[in-house]
Predict the structure.
Amino acid sequence: MANSINQYFGQLRDTRVWRSVFRGGTGSSTLRRSLAIQQNVFLHLFSTKVRTRMLSFSATWYLGTLTLGTFLILVITGILLMLYYHPSVPQAYADTKDLQFVVSSGLFLRNLHRWSAHAMVFLVFAHMFKVFYRGAYRPPREFNWVIGIVLLLITLLLSYTGYLLPWDQLAYWAITVGSNIASAVPVFGGKIHFMLLGGNLVNANALLRFYVLHCMILPLSAIFFIAIHFWRIRKDGGLYAHQSEPATLKRLAAARGEQ
Amino acid sequence: MPDEKHEIQPEPNGVFDRRKFFVKLGLGSLSIAAAGTAVFAYQFLSPNVLYEPSPVVNAGKPESYPLDSVTLDVNSGIYLIRAKEGFFSLGAVCTHLGCLTTWKPELGIIACPCHGSKFQRNGEKIEGPAPKPLPWLRTWLSDDGDLMVDRSTTIRPMEFLRV
């Protein structure tokens, strides 16, 4: 049974259509497997070879991957929420209520979006602390730390801009306070405040600007920097596993035993 | 090879060759275009017309305000206060980060719910993170005898409107 399935996939991989999409060819040689990674637009960001100790849970606690997971959930649920949400003053709050009480699965999607957003902020910080305390920011990875800081700021801005969209009292006053903090910038503070809100008050222009920032500009920048972040992991020598990791110690002990 | 020839016969110092000229021309035009784009972006992002409520508020007849009363209009964000010396109005928006303050009749003070700033009835700061007192707003009587407040014009404190 297993043999016939393998045979079937073997034949499939030999078809002209398959070969036109995946040009790496067939077979399980190291070269073929490397090519499968290198020639895939998504996978080429990653290393073709990874040490198993770097994939152990203790090395990273999978915090970066989990952050990406929450980001993907947020993109999918966010796009679905956009189908029922109008970023206009008379409708925004009513649409949010409709999503919770009228739209089928709307409550689930909105809550998933909300909790994933909270989880993403938590995971981004946890990821940063893990990288910091394990010293994974040190050369040659220092530039990837900087990219990470940019991603942290984008994450916080995504949270902040998304906070206005329900257009309730909490949202209104939070953005009033937050945008007034921006106007504390020396010299340009007033201009920044005006441009951010598209006016002097948190009003229709502000809602629309925050919507565009939340749904287009910030997610696209996040995807751009995530791509660089992942590519730099490969370029900087792969994931970082500290020498004191249990998996590493076990390997070292085994190596000593062999000698 | 043209490059080798270029190296063998360097141009004398101070003489502009064609390549340098075009590089400078290109970079110069790009900088001008970038500066222009920045200006256009700034202008585009700053709306020229705002559909915001008028800063001038009609607060109604003076008789509707009892003596020694503090009335908050939450929609326009102003206090209309009738003191013994006359009428005056204060901006109700906290000078700290823009929250709407509220009048506490039992304490006789104005308090901000966000970060705990406190003001006296005349706008003076008692405590809290607010950096400035609440502003006194220009207040006058219209021809119809209504109290009018201009939220965009501040006046010096203690300039009461006597009716």
